[in-house]
Design brief:
It is a single chain. By secondary structure, the chain is of the alpha/beta class. The protein has one domain: Glycoside hydrolase/deacetylase (TIM Barrel, Alpha-Beta Barrel). It contains eight helices and 14 strands. Strands 2, 3, 6, 10, 11 and 14 form a six-stranded parallel β-sheet that branches. A two-stranded antiparallel ribbon has the order 1-9. It has a two-stranded antiparallel ribbon with strand order 4-5. Helix 2 links the parallel strand 2 and strand 3. The protein starts with 20 loop residues before the first helix and ends with a helix.
Length: 263
């Protein structure tokens, strides 16, 4: 009997992705595409990695119920398979998200560790992923990237801006002031005290008029250790809606910030 495929899971914390601690620190400090965030009001981007079908059937539904839209970073190696996250996305999910105004982003084809693989291998995996998404019916150009495991290198960061508008990591924090579009911060919407942390971040985003990015995987009543409970996602999205905070895809917020920077 064949075993179900295993989807790569995030590493605990934000430890090195196969590289050294010093290499990771250099990558974090190095600003490959510095941009100054000047927003007139706060905005949230909910992002979903890999992505499981539940992030569409439940996650997208939650966002849409309060007028929000999000970004799904696709890794096509396990398209249509069943993993520890449950059934993974297929062509119908891509069409459903695009039709509703959500964004599909790139997460590499095989969840390549960008801090450990050669740059040629990483870019080849990106191309393979883009081709696979096109075969699934995606007509939009991929402009948003997310590093699998949240890790990168200085060289890769320098090369990415010519291919993607943004690249998202997993370093927690609020995108405000001078940030790096080649390594956007993102906050886990899973784990212990996820709702409490999310509400605190929402308050900070409101006060500072910053860009708050969340990331997760599956969405269900009983999520995996790397997924969000439906209730938590609903509470955070509802709180954002009640506070008048916009919920938009990464590509839209990034385009707005760049337009303001060049105005």
């Amino acid at each position: 009997m064949n075993e179900a495929p295993t989807a790569p899971a995030p590493r605990p914390g934000t430890g090195p992705g196969g590289g050294s601690h010093s290499g990771r620190r250099r990558a974090l400090r190095h600003l490959a595409r510095p941009v100054h965030v000047r927003l007139s009001k706060p905005v949230i981007s909910f992002t979903f990695d890999d992505f499981p079908k539940s992030s569409v059937t439940r996650g997208a539904q939650v966002l849409e119920s309060v007028g929000g839209r999000g970004t799904w970073y696709a890794g096509c190696a396990i398209t249509g398979e069943t993993t520890q996250y449950g059934p993974m996305f297929d062509a119908a999910d891509v069409a459903r998200l695009c039709g509703a105004g959500h964004e599909i982003g790139c997460h590499t084809f095989s969840h390549t560790d960008c801090a450990a693989a050669s740059m040629d291998d990483v870019f080849a995996d990106m191309v393979r992923n883009a081709e696979a998404l096109a075969a699934l019916g995606l007509e939009e150009r991929l402009v948003s990237f997310a590093y699998p495991y949240g890790e990168t290198t200085v060289a890769l960061k320098d090369a990415l801006p010519s291919r993607f508008t943004t690249a998202r990591g997993t370093e927690a924090g609020l995108a405000e002031g001078r940030i790096d579009f080649a390594q956007l911060p993102a906050n886990a919407l899973f784990g212990e005290d996820a709702q409490k942390r999310a509400m605190k971040l929402l308050e900070q985003a409101q006060r500072r008029k910053g860009w708050l990015i969340f990331y997760t995987h599956d969405v269900s009543v009983r999520p995996t250790a790397w997924g969000s409970s439906t209730a938590v996602l609903e509470r955070v999205a509802t709180a954002a809606y009640a506070a008048g905070v916009e919920m938009a895809p990464v590509r839209e917020v990034a385009a707005r910030i760049l337009a303001d920077a060049h105005a």
